[in-house]
Amino acid sequence: MTSTTPTGHPAQQEPEVISLLAAGRLLGMGRTKAYRLAKAGDFPCRVLRIGGRYAVPVRGLRALLDHTSESGSQSRPACEEG
């Protein structure tokens, strides 16, 4: 009988980057605001420009979300650059 459980490390199955729209939604903002902040260089964490698209590294987004959930403050923390 074969198993339907994925094998390997979970980190290998997760994407390294997500779309700007998905990252913005996780941060509670709409499409227009996310793109406006990215274009101005004011998005709350690192944004990569890949061709004509924006991508947000998951590692930096997680660091931002972990930091804001631990501190409970609404201030804008610095994101991980890695």
Strand content of the residues, in percent? 5-15%
Structural class: alpha+beta
Poorly predicted runs of 5 or more residues: none
How many helix segments? 4
Estimated radius of gyration: 15 Å
Q: What is the distance, rounded to the nearest whole angstrom, between the alpha carbons of the first and last residues?
A: 42 Å
| Mean pLDDT rating | 82
Categorize the overall geometry: globular
Total beta strand runs = 3
Q: Can you write the helix and strand succession as a string?
A: HEHHEEH
Biggest beta sheet summary: 3 strands, antiparallel
* Order of neighbouring strands in the sheet with most strands: 1-3-2
Portion in helices: 40-55%
What does this structure look like?
The chain has 82 residues and is of the alpha+beta class. It is 43% helix and 13% strand. The chain is built from four helices and three strands. Strands 1-3-2 form a three-stranded antiparallel β-sheet. A hairpin with a 2-residue loop joins strand 2 (48-50) and strand 3. The longest helix has 14 residues, at 58-71. The protein starts with 9 loop residues before the first helix and ends in an 11-residue tail after the last helix.
